[in-house]
Amino acid sequence: MSLALSQPPWQDLSTHTRRTRMGVTIYEPPSRSPEEPRRERAVERSGALLIRNDPQLQALVAEASAVLHTSMAAVSIVYRDWQYLIAAEGMPTGPYSRRASLCGHAILATDTDEDVFCIPDAWRDPRFADNPMLAGTQLLRFYAGAPLVDDDGLTLGMLCVIDSTPRDPLRPAERRRLSELARLAVKRLEQLRPA
Asked: Is the overall model pTM greater than 0.85, yes or no?
């Protein structure tokens, strides 16, 4: 199955730099796991990149946003050089560059479906200094994502919540709820998988 999509018409983030007081710095994009080829094959098998406008996935992201009191939420599938928002609340669905993706970092930091990757204030986190998603915008300060883990233990992407204001780290009950919603999203992806 071919999943190649043309590059979106926005700027090429591979050359993004931002001037700082000390000169020019360059954002370090997320690295790739040695398991990346296996993970990409799992994404292909899942059929997730073919999903558009599924009402149940939309309901899950709306619930995540409401329960965690964030302005945005998404089911993000990370594949090759892109992250694909296949369901979203408060932002458009579609492909976004993996180079600037917080989900690209999150899939590396989560080993089980119980893990939640949380960034209380992305502007203050040195891992995201000079991230082009943060440059000149007030939209992204808080991020939390629960992994979408398939039956083989491979992370297809994240169910994430995002807000424009920094927040305290998620409380244990909030982490559990986000993980529960991510598991429901995986079940829905399995139901939608092509035969």
From this structure: no
